[in-house]
Amino acid sequence: MIVCCGEALIDMVPVPVGEGPDRETGFLPCPGGSPYNTALALGRLGVPVRFLGQVSRDFFGERLIAGLRENQVGTELILRSEAPSTLAFVRPGHEGQYLFYTQGTAGPSLTPADIPRSLPEETRCLLFGSIAMTMEPLASAMESLIFREHTQARKQGREQPLISLDPNIRPFMIPCREAYIHRFETWLKVVSILKLSAEDLAYIYPDQDLNTALERVLTLGVRLVLLTQGSAGAGALLRRDQGEALRVHCPGFPVTLADTIAAGDTFHGAFLAWLCFHGLMSPSQVAALTGAELTEALGFANKAASLVCTRHGANPPSRAELAAFTG
User: End-to-end distance of the chain based on CA atoms, in angstroms?
Assistant: First the structure.
């Protein structure tokens, strides 16, 4: 089972209201948040998944909970709050630019003390990241969870769960870039899979070329880096036990673009789903992936991300839809 940890929020998506010269822009509330979207992608693909975070009891929060349940995502690890739901307004005409209303809202208010004392025994993977790691006390709660699970596994002499990070960086949410980078690099000591975009990597290591930046990430402890590059597809860089690196690239699927909302989240979920389908849900198994396996997994994830780009909003495909999709 995969546990997706972090923020669940309401994306306020701009929509036209009225016609002619009096036409205005309104906002349509849609469930969202990077780990929330990834949980939906996993649930629709048939992977056992639960969401861990704090969700409001207001009507937006009820909608978030309903969206999870409708897509076979377990809600047992969710803490409910009387605080209002977190809102993210998408800037009209500027896809990818957001205005977040977070202060005093439910999602960012989760504290380390609110984290469950233990996770379900069947947990094989923890997924975290996104703006959850820029808001306190939520960031500290997520951080304490991943380090606790890593430390407990080591003390018990067992392999740690697969920990997968998608920073999904929003620079305007980061008050101090240097402090964020320092903290980011401490997470990599326990992270097995790092999924990030070319834009994320450029923000983190602006003075390094792509290959140098990727190699630095591997030296910090990461086993596998997944780099999404939009229509150019995605690449993977894997560090093996012997120290050598395996590089793989998979082209994207040409599609008619509706928007790119949740494309990266869907890619992340679909890649983890492929690992789950093939029984490869541990750090040691990831380290032993072959070039052919990595290529197949990247292709599966690219296909899912491409399909979601043909739809408006965060609408990940089911496994049947993915099987039928030819691009």
Answer: 30
* Cβ–Cβ < 8 Å for 150, 181: no
Question: Is residue 257 a part of any domain in this protein?
Answer: yes
Taken in order 235, 236, 237, 242, the sign of the CA dihedral is: negative
Range of the domain at 240: 2-14+27-324
- Pair 251, 206: CB distance under 8 Å: no
Q: Letter for the amino acid at 104?
A: G
Q: Nearest-CA neighbor of 304 among 275, 262, 276?
A: 262
* pLDDT of res. 96: 58
Q: How far apart are CA 135 and CA 139, in angstroms?
A: 6
Is the alpha carbon torsion for 95, 97, 100, 106 positive or negative?
A: positive
Number of folded domains that form the chain: 1
pLDDT digits (tens, 9 = 90+) for 233-253: 899 999 988 778 899 999 888
- Which CATH number is 76's domain given? 3.40.1190.20
pTM, to two decimals: 0.95
- Within-domain flag for 20: no
* Burial (Cβ within 10 Å: 0-12, 13-18, ≥19) of residue 113: exposed
Residue 298 CB coordination number (10 Å): 24
For the chain, count helices (H), then strands (E).
10, 14
Sign of the alpha-carbon torsion through 121, 127, 129, 132? negative
The tokens describing 26, both together, are: 């309104």
